[in-house]
Write a structure and sequence with these properties.
about 325 residues; 4-stranded parallel beta sheet; alpha/beta
């Protein structure tokens, strides 16, 4: 199911759904302060920077992303960039909460003629839940070489952590999947190589704050099962590698770019099979973002079609599996 581009109406509905949840879950004084702080950006900084770069700058003076983005894409990415950098996590997490996500999804489905959601909402407990999920899939598929792991951003981090974890078990060779598709993985939670770019909507300082909160302790930041990119042991990566290798997709302009390139180079030195698609001028997790922001169906599904092509080159499609 591929829904159409996010519209201005969708954005309005999202705000209507979001406001009550913010009032319910955020201290009113903190919320008012956050709104007041954002007003100069909304009414002055945003329109000024948007118009100056798009209409009063030559093409080579624009950021690589703006050079190819539509007005709507440029506007949304600028707003998300501000939110990621300046809205506190305790407020930002409400944007992705169940009370916001489900009503918004149901409206999007209804607008496209769907009356029933394809999935139910489930809370996850990160790596432990990922391991349990993989074990469940193995119990159904029986042949792990038919399994392709996939994830974007922090989800791709969990897939890398899962692979490193499974490689330490006694039956690792029997359980390793056939392929891993990783979109813009957050390989190392905290690293000076994460640098802000003119195009990307992620902010390195905020990422490091969230990374430290996720890790819990400074020691955990050095644990490969928490922050996979800190693992430089080539033999460990060989043991962890899926039988068909890896596929990486990421934007050339994203904050994670240097770390992703380093991980790819390490895997190749370890003689792991690696396929890479670096999208010129694009931002973090663009194959996912484009599903919401791209103008045409062709553009929205391009990333998915590229991924599907690479997966089917390793795992042959069309095999029926009982129970799926």
């Amino acid at each position: 199911m591929i829904l159409g581009q996010i519209s201005y109406l969708d954005c309005l509905v999202f705000l209507v759904v979001l406001v009550p949840q913010l009032l319910l879950h955020v201290n009113i004084f903190e919320l008012v302060f956050c709104v007041l702080k954002a007003l100069p950006f909304v009414f002055f900084q945003l329109p000024y920077q948007l118009c100056r770069e798009r209409y009063f700058s030559s093409k080579h003076e624009r950021s690589p992303f703006v050079q190819q983005a539509s007005f709507f894409q440029d506007l949304v990415i600028r707003i998300v960039r501000y939110a990621f950098a300046f809205i506190p996590a305790k407020i930002g997490r409400v944007f992705f909460s169940k009370g916001v996500a489900i009503p918004f999804l149901r409206f999007r489905l209804l607008r496209h003629g769907y009356l029933q959601a394809p999935l139910t909402w489930r809370e996850a407990v990160l790596l432990e839940q990922t391991i349990a999920g993989y074990d469940h899939i193995c119990s159904i598929v029986k042949n792990p070489s038919r399994i392709c792991l996939a994830g974007d951003s922090a989800g791709a981090t969990l897939q890398l952590s899962l692979l490193l974890h499974m490689s330490q078990t006694s039956d690792s060779m029997k359980r390793r999947p056939g392929f891993a598709t990783l979109i813009s993985p957050w390989a190392t939670l905290v690293t000076p190589k994460n640098r802000d770019t003119a195009s990307d909507y992620l902010n390195a300082d905020s990422l490091h704050l969230y990374g430290r909160q996720f890790a819990g302790t400074q020691a955990n930041l050095k644990d490969p099962l928490v922050s996979p990119g800190v693992c430089k042991d080539q033999e460990w990566w060989v043991r962890a590698s899926p039988s068909g290798g890896y596929c990486f997709m990421y934007g050339s302009e994203e904050v994670f770019g240097p770390e992703v390139r380093d991980l790819i180079a390490l895997l190749r030195r370890s003689r792991c099979a690696v396929r890479v698609r670096e999208e010129p001028g694009q931002v973090h997790a663009w194959p996912v973002v484009s599903l919401f922001l791209a103008d045409t169906q062709e553009e929205r599904t391009k990333g998915l079609r590229d991924l599907t092509k690479m997966i089917t080159q390793v795992i042959e499609p069309g095999v029926h599996i009982d129970g799926i």
